[in-house]
Design brief:
The complex is a heterotrimer of chains A (281), B (82) and C (113). Chain A is mainly α and 281 residues long. Helix content of chain A is 63%, strand content 0%. Chain A has one domain. The longest helix of chain A is centred in the last third of the chain and has 38 residues. The chains are: A mainly alpha (281), B mainly alpha (82), C mainly alpha (113).
């Protein structure tokens, strides 16, 4: 995205040199990938290094080395920390892309808040949401913390957390909309800006933990050197939890950011979820 | 041909049907709902294959989140696809 | 010991069967009833009852504190979320002027609109 030239005014096309370079870059990249692919071991080859060295190591010593009984978490957040950083960055970039394309003014507070801020909810929805949302958010944190021992972790917990935020948004309207005078609609919840901050803090915390490991003499994202205790497995367990929490924040923030950017468009276009027509209370 | 095979075949058949219907219908809201059905069936199938982590993710992301995003996008762009 | 076990299993099977009956009723209701609201009426109540009874049956069949407690928690969640979802659907339909069936009940079920 960074190298995409801005569209010239007046319908002119990009300069010829740039077009030729762009057209030449893709075949070159394709050829490079094909050449690189021939060097890889055959797919599914049981004699490949990944099958003969890595998998047995993960299976046999994963729990002892990382302190995570759930092998998926051990691989995802520790052995394959780079991959997970990439995934979190991709999700964050997707949220940023949505923000830029759909809500290019950023968190605009002067929007005509029709529709969604006229809360769709009735007293039934209100009461049910008050009961359900805390449970959902708590369960999200449980999934995050319990990722070491059972299926779960940062991604799943983050999505659950974001779903809880979206549920509040659906029933009570956006958190940054001013409530109608005299209404008791809770204004708890994250604004669009808050979601963005949450996601950014998450991705920065991830990189920060990696850099902290470097600062204490290890490699990037090699947590063993962090001064959190004497037992290396325990240190790695704590650092893995930190990584999972960072992923949790990134995913949760991005999820609610995605929903917010889309619903800002809905408020702008005046296509509310709860239409103004029909009987009102 | 064990019981597990039969369950898998039935599940995959319903997955195929719901995916085909999601492509065929003209109403985007219906398509989003059918895609949600597809996602939950996929999650069930992952769980049957012994991958609860993936099943959990698929149920959260595919079943709940993308359905919500699809529905809100359908509201934004217009419901029908002709 | 064996007698009590079979009693537990029998109760669980009965609950499951009752749950399946209600779910079947909900499915028949969706297929046969004429408009959105009547269909919602069928699925809202019958599915909540069917799902709750099925979960209760599974909880009895499992007969293991860890599993049973989790299933009962899921049951509470279903009991809260399902009627709320039905209410939200009905409310959304009412607000967006979904057509209400005003046909003659004695003329039998009508086809899909």
């Amino acid at each position: 995205m960074g190298s995409t030239p801005p569209r010239p005014a007046g319908g002119e096309r990009a300069p010829r040199l740039r077009r030729v370079l762009g057209a030449a870059a893709f075949p070159a990249l394709f050829l490079g990938l094909v050449v690189g692919m021939t060097e890889l071991p055959e797919f599914g080859d049981p004699a490949s290094p990944a099958s003969t060295h890595l998998s047995p190591r993960f299976i046999e010593e994963g729990a002892a080395e990382t302190g995570a009984a759930n092998m998926v978490t051990a691989v995802l957040a520790d052995y394959r920390g780079y991959d997970t950083l990439g995934e979190a960055a991709v999700i964050f970039a997707a949220g940023l892309g949505c923000l830029v394309i759909l809500a290019s003014g950023g968190a605009r507070r002067d929007l005509p808040v029709a529709g969604m801020s006229n809360r769709f909810g009735s007293i039934v929805l209100d009461a049910a949401t008050r009961t359900l949302v805390p449970v959902v958010l708590l369960f999200a944190v449980y999934v995050l913390i319990h990722g070491h021992y059972s299926p779960g972790g940062g991604f799943q917990g983050g999505v659950l957390f974001g779903s809880g935020l979206i549920m509040m948004r659906l029933v009570w309207g956006p958190a940054d909309a001013s409530p109608r005078p005299g209404s008791d609609v809770p204004t708890f919840g994250l604004s669009l800006r808050g979601s963005l901050v949450l996601a950014s803090v998450g991705i920065l915390a991830y990189v920060g933990i990696g850099l902290a490991a470097m600062a204490f003499g290890g490699e990037f994202l090699n947590y063993g050197t962090l001064p959190l205790g004497s037992d290396p497995a325990h240190v790695r367990e704590l650092a893995t939890l930190g990584i999972e929490a960072a992923v949790f924040l990134t995913v949760g923030g991005t999820v609610s950011l995605l929903f917010d950017t889309i619903s800002i468009g809905m408020r702008e276009n005046g296509v509310p979820l709860g239409s103004e027509r029909g009987p009102r209370e | 041909m064990t019981e597990g095979h039969l369950v898998s075949i039935g599940l995959l058949a319903v997955m195929l049907i719901s995916a085909g219907c999601a492509l065929a219908v003209k109403d985007l809201l219906t398509a989003a709902a059918l895609f949600g059905v597809f996602s939950f069936l996929t999650a069930t199938w992952f769980a049957l294959m012994g991958a609860p982590d993936v099943a959990f993710t698929e149920a959260c992301v595919g079943g709940a989140l993308t359905t919500i995003l699809f529905v809100s996008t359908a509201f934004r762009t217009g419901r029908r696809f002709d | 010991m064996i007698a009590s076990l079979t009693l537990v299993e029998g109760i669980g099977a009965l609950l499951l069967a009752a749950g399946l009956f209600f779910i079947l009723t909900a499915v028949i209701g969706i297929l046969r009833l004429p408009d959105f609201f009547t269909r919602l009426h069928a699925i809202g109540k019958c599915e909540t009852a069917g799902l709750s009874l099925s979960l209760l049956g599974l909880a009895v069949l499992a007969w293991d504190p860890a599993v049973t407690v989790k299933l009962v928690l899921v049951l509470f969640l279903v009991f809260l979320a399902n009627p709320t979802a039905t209410h939200a659907l009905a409310r959304a339909a009412r607000k967006t002027d979904v057509e209400v069936w005003r046909g003659d009940p004695s003329s039998g079920p009508v086809g899909d609109r």
